[in-house]
Amino acid sequence: MSARSPDAILLVDGQVALAGRVPASGRTAPSRGDGLRGMPVGPYIRTEVLAADAREDSAGEGAVRPTRRALLVLASGGWGGTEKAFVELANALASSLEVVVAVPEGCPYRDRFSESVAGIRSLRPGSRRNPLVLGHLRRLIREVRPDVVHTHAAKATEMVWWVSRTMPVVQVATKHNTRPRRIFSRVRWVTAVSHQAAATVDHRHGVEVVYNAVPAPGPGDRLPRETFTILAVGRLHRHKGFDLLIREAARLPFGHLLRIAGEGPERARLEKLIRRLGSEGRVELLGHREDVVDLMGDAHVLVVSSRTEGFSLALVEGLLACDLVLSTRVGIAPEILPEELLIDGFEIGEKLCDAHARYDELRALAREARTRAEPWFRMTEIVGRYRTLYEKALAS
Questions:
Q1: CATH no. of 66-213+378-395
Q2: pTM of the model
């Protein structure tokens, strides 16, 4: 460990803070000007120091080279739209770059990476400011030696940002939702998956909007069921608004079937709501499904009822695979759907009645939106955008 390292990751009063100069004694007087706002900085205490080794990190300094190796990092342990987009991007980038991913041990998407991904590394479990977690990540980055570290979502972005205070890291960060997170204002190169997500970042250099890639379904006939079928897809979580959709569907004056594909913590509450409304024969909770595209082909309309979204993978998949899509004004919806297909003020029932009465007319509008938007979500387009951004970041 070098005693003259200018930066170190320290444990101060049980939290992380940046140190100034680290004396050989291993004791330090942290600077109050360093670290994230609101983080306590204590007096001289003995700390665990993870000091930078400048000799290797500065090798080749000043030379600009094309991206050859990228490390993609996601600290989420769940499975949803963000995780699916992350896996598909890593698999696609691996066709032209050496790609290594760092994800939590035992995460449900770990076995979804293709054989072309050069390595799958495990993140140490723990909070984003835990010195042991950060030290493990720092060693991982030094071992992989990536040209670019591309972090997805807030936790991974903050973890890598902390590490970047102690060693050179070219970081690109992607924001996947609309929840305010100050960390994205601290990273130089930031993308967001929609304009709504980008608007939540106060960044002096601006935020580049790069959509998630969504593959178009293969050729096949769209054969909706005889009963007017409404489909919703997503994790059973409050922000998806499935409770609103179930209530609104219960008041529809025409025969219908509402099917919801997804699993999550709201299942018991939604089942209770269905029983209370007497909707048992008209609402199906399908659980997790791998055949979502087939379900979309069977439905008359896909409804996105979310209270908030950063992107909405289900919306784009529905636009490409279903005859008709309706959505609240969340995520990417206002960017790709005409006004006639947007739901104002969560008036879902009113919009469904309109869709039932004007089905052929609205379906034609959805077809036009599909033709216009499909090229925006091609994986070749998204990979090219990120490759260009990686080169800009390396050249800066």
A1: 3.40.50.2000
A2: 0.79
